[in-house]
Fold this protein.
Amino acid sequence: MAPLRTIRGISWDHPRGFDCLAANVPAFQAANPDIEVVWERRSLKQFGEQPIDALAERYDLIVADHPFVGHGAASGCLIDVTPIIGKDAVDAMLQDSVGKSSVSYHWNGGVYGLPTDAASQVASYRPDIMAALKHEAPQSFGETIALAKAARAAGKSIATPACPTDAMSLILSFTANLGQPLGAEPGQFWERRALEEAFAYVEELVAASHPSSPDWNPIQGYNAMSSTDEIAYISYAFGYSNYSRKGVARPILFTNVAGPGSDPRAGALLGGAGCAVTSSARDFEAIGRYLRFVHDPAHQRGAYFDAGGQPGSRSAWLDERVNAEANNFFRNTLETLDKSFLRPRFDGFVPFFEEGGEIINARLRGAFSREAAIDKLSAHYEHILALEPAQA
């Protein structure tokens, strides 16, 4: 008997990241008995920040955030998947995309990932607490602040996850919502007045939120929201349909964001995750079979979703069964996804994002002035640009 052809992959440690892939390996292997698929996991923080170069030496597939594609292409640790799955499959995913989640992995003429999972920052609320407060989900930034005041008066609160990663995400979202996004190309930094305006709104929002907000990432915020009766509303956080599904003891309902710009639902930061193929991969025929299996729209809206996944397929986001099972998570946030902001992906952006988040988070904690935070952010951006790509 010939030895099994093994595909090794790494995702992040959450039902939405790991379980939905690992749980469906047996179905793939039943149809492809000559291929073995092994998934491992890493933390959410590592998913957002850990360099992919070392991982690419050990794995065939990496589930990665799209900002890594610029470095992945420049360093050669990720490869174009088009020859592996075929242009027709790539084009089909573009047609079935949620917002820019598919095109986010396209870079300099290549495709360095596939839209396995779609997400952006969205808003959410506890319907029972909102009903007690006699408030609807905010439709504007002013309504969000009004809700925060009403919640506080009733011994409740809103929350805005703003740990370093999410603090940076907030500034990127708010500048985009205000029509002054960070430029996609190196050197296209914000104008100072754009940052001043965004900082003012973000500072006001976080100050009106639960005092633990600067410590929390989205999962910590949702866990607090679902495990206590303290938090009525989360204003901006990457959406997780797992918290809105049938069977959850205290279900969270999700909705569109409410920013301060002329279109309150525009500019929320695009997230999601995609399967990328590394330069150490060799069995492209097996990998192609597996990637086509994972990204098949019927699988995405079926077994992938059922195992905890958050599909990257638009047909899944529109599917009646999927929405019924998730309290309309997908239908009720789709406008935000479609209007979301695609952050820069050039080589060096990820380290700028990481350090920038530390600076913004420190400002939100009162460590220094807004002016100093903007100066530090600008200086760090210039520092990143001055580095050689291999160092960035």
About this structure: The chain is about 45% helix and 15% strand. Residues 121-269+348-392 form a domain with the D-Maltodextrin-Binding Protein; domain 2 fold (CATH 3.40.190.10). The chain has a mean pLDDT of 95. The longest strand covers residues 5-12.
